[in-house]
Design a protein that fits this description.
This protein starts with a helix and ends in a 6-residue tail after the last strand. The protein is built from 17 helices and twelve strands. Strands 5, 6, 7, 8, 9, 10, 11 and 12 form an eight-stranded mixed sheet that branches. Strands 2-3-1-4 form a four-stranded antiparallel sheet, sandwiched between helices. It is globular and about 75 Å long. The chain folds into two domains: about 140 residues, Orthogonal Bundle (N-utilizing Substance Protein B Homolog, Chain A), CATH 1.10.940; about 250 residues, Vaccinia Virus protein VP39 (Rossmann fold, 3-Layer(aba) Sandwich), CATH 3.40.50.150. By secondary structure, the protein is of the alpha/beta class.
Length: about 425
């Protein structure tokens, strides 16, 4: 099998795992035995092809539905994924039509379903001729957003903001870094800019491990919005801080670098192994505990707790476009139960006067403000500590009327946008009186 076909075969198998079996894209790629065997250029192509297919899936299906007369079912359903990959190349990646059609036909032929070969050829040749016209002037932002997300964002933020959020998801996210120290120096080495909040940002591209400073452990990859919740803890130097649901560890590294004595807790041994590797690379230390944070019982309490709770991840669709097609409102409902349990446990872990920062990388109101309002109604001794504008330089618009943090992908459009995060800061009483 030549390189062109091998890379597309990997992309097909990963897409089938993702869309037909409900597996997260990153996990499916990481577990695919053939992916690491590809040349670096082919691995980059596979990632680009999959991300583009998932990011533009609504438009792709809109066009394919106009060209396919009968549903592709049973053993033939795999042809749908072959056509989606071919359509992504023809409509969005600028692949020459003869190359996109030929490799897709050969891919179909390799599946040992010979009747799909001519079918694939016919559909993609017609798509090459008519695809752009079939899309017409339809709204890409709306077409590529599942209805449940569109309706929830419209209800939470208004139709105009929902449109802006969905449009931001169609643009590849830049590459963001948090430096352990010497932010300005490393921004220069990375040919990047320093954002007002202190994150280093450069255009995406190139292997991370080959960038200046990686081997030295000078920085770690972390979206600008993801870096904000840990900063809301304030000056933590010398304090004992628990980072719950910590892996893969960007926030753990931040808190350690700020001088705190950190205990990082996560339920996944694999993800905790990755956190340990990240700590070792940057030369920082933390106590690592593999446990269910909602049941974990340490021997002493903490000055502060950061809870980056498991969530739907809908704020990260720029980087993880598969989430839009793998999650639904039922998933959000199940996750809110876990979030409530974790919040109550986090409060129990705090010393009198301790600070809790709750965060989720979700755009769903049920996972953000609704959880905090429910908690405050139940635990009336808790006090919300509003975020001050000086704590979010250049992002005053991300402070909600209640004083919480709410970033949207549509913010900072001239700088490349942000992930969608919600965070709230709470304090327990200084005494039981």
């Amino acid at each position: 099998m030549d390189d062109l076909l091998a890379s597309r075969r990997v992309a097909l198998e990963v897409l089938v795992g993702c869309l037909d079996k409900g597996q997260p894209l990153d996990d499916t790629l990481a577990q695919h035995r053939g992916f690491p065997l590809l040349a670096p250029r082919d691995r980059a192509f596979v990632r680009l092809l999959l991300a583009t297919t998932l990011r533009r899936l609504g438009e792709i299906d809109e066009v394919l539905d106009a060209l396919i007369e009968r549903p592709l079912e049973g053993p033939n359903s795999v042809a749908r994924q072959v056509l989606r990959l071919g359509a992504a190349q023809l409509l969005f990646l600028g692949t020459p039509p003869h190359a996109a059609v030929d490799t897709s036909v050969r891919l179909a032929d390799s599946l040992r379903l010979p009747h799909l070969k001519g079918f694939t050829n016919a559909v993609l040749r017609r798509l090459a001729r008519e695809g752009t016209a079939l899309l017409g002037d339809r709204d890409p932002a709306r077409l590529n957003t599942p209805l449940w997300l569109w309706e929830s964002w419209s209800a939470s933020y208004g139709p105009e903001s929902a449109q802006a959020i969905a449009a931001a998801h169609l643009i590849e996210a830049p590459l963001d870094f948090t430096a352990r120290s010497d932010t300005a120096f490393w921004a220069g080495r990375l040919e990047a800019e320093v954002l007002p909040t202190g994150t280093i940002r450069r255009s995406a591209g190139g292997p991370i491990v080959e960038l200046p400073g990686f081997a030295e452990g000078a920085w770690w990859v972390q979206d600008a919005a993801a870096a904000l919740p840990a900063r809301l803890l304030g000056d933590v130097a010398g304090q004992r801080v628990a980072d719950l649901c910590a892996a893969p560890g960007g926030k753990t590294l931040q808190i350690c670098a700020a001088g705190a004595i950190v205990t990082a807790v996560d339920i996944s041994p694999r993800r905790m192994g990755r956190l340990g590797d990240n700590l070792a690379r940057v030369g920082l230390k933390a106590e690592l505990v593999t446990a269910d944070a909602s049941k974990w019982t340490p021997t002493s309490k903490f000055d502060a707790v950061l809870l980056d709770a498991p969530c739907s991840g809908t704020g990260t669709l720029r980087r993880h476009p598969d989430i839009a097609w793998l999650k639904d409102q039922d998933d959000v409902g199940r996750l809110t139960l876990a979030q409530d349990r974790l919040l109550l446990r986090a409060i129990d872990l705090l010393k009198p006067g301790g600070t809790l920062v709750y965060a989720v990388c979700s755009l769903q109101e049920d996972e953000g403000p609704a959880r905090i309002e429910a908690l405050l109604a139940r635990e009336r001794q808790l006090k919300r500590v509003p975020i001050r504008p000086e704590e979010l330089p250049g992002l005053a618009e991300a402070i909600t009327p209640a004083g919480d943090l709410r970033t949207l992908p549509s913010m900072w459009p001239d700088r490349g946008g942000l992930d969608g995060f919600y965070a709230a800061r709470l304090k327990v009483p200084s005494s039981s009186a």
